[in-house]
Amino acid sequence: MTTHKLEGPWRTKPMTDGPNGIIIHAMGEYVNHQYAPDFMKSVGGSVHAFISVEGKVLLGADWDTGAFHAGKSAFEGSEDLNASFLGVEVLVEGQHNMASFRRAVEEHHPYKEQQYIALAELCALWISKFGIDRRLVLAHAHVSGQDVRRDPKIDPGATFNWEKLHLGIDHFLSHPPITMTENETK
Asked: Is the pTM of this model over 0.70?
């Protein structure tokens, strides 16, 4: 897995329990002419990792902290999943506004093979490291949909290939070790 630790500081909060799961997000590679991680910091958001268009894992907030990625969220009776779930943003190539992003993730299959591989390896690492149930690798849309909020989230979108991700996770879980240096996991 190719990783790069992004410069902070990242807005964080205490991890109240867990991490208990993983939320898969997506956003434009560039938003308002800013690279996605810089844009996220500028609006007070944070995430534990980004998957670049090239398939690199860009590390954000420390994994033992809560991050501001899920917003109003709920799953199986738990709320505020920012405090108990890890978040990862898969970047959609190019400059996007909300309309172009929505079209990309709903109609155009924007995710690349190298992104699925990197995402699967990262999820497998987190599942192994934290004892996360692999069934708790969830879409942002699943935990912040119209049953939870007035402005439901759609990411990672209808074109995201969950079967490919789950097959990749299974592959990496059955082919340990998955390693990163301690510095990269903080």
From this structure: yes
First vs last C-alpha separation in the chain: 16
Q: What is d(CA 129, CA 152) in angstroms, rounded to the nearest whole number? A: 31
Provide the b/e sequence for 108-146 (b: ≥16 CB within 10 Å).
eebbbeebbbbbbbbbbbbbeeeebeeebbbbbbebbee
Burial environment of residue 76 by CB neighbours within 10 A (0 to 12, 13 to 18, 19 or more): exposed
| Dist. CA 37–CA 106, nearest whole Å | 22
Residue 62: burial class (beta carbons within 10 Å; 0-12, 13-18, 19+)? middle
User: pLDDT for 72-109, tens place per residue?
Assistant: 999 999 999 999 999 999 999 999 999 999 999 999 99
Place of tokens 């434009």: 28
Predicted pLDDT at 186: 43
**What is the number of other CB atoms lying within 10 angstroms of the CB of residue 181?**
9
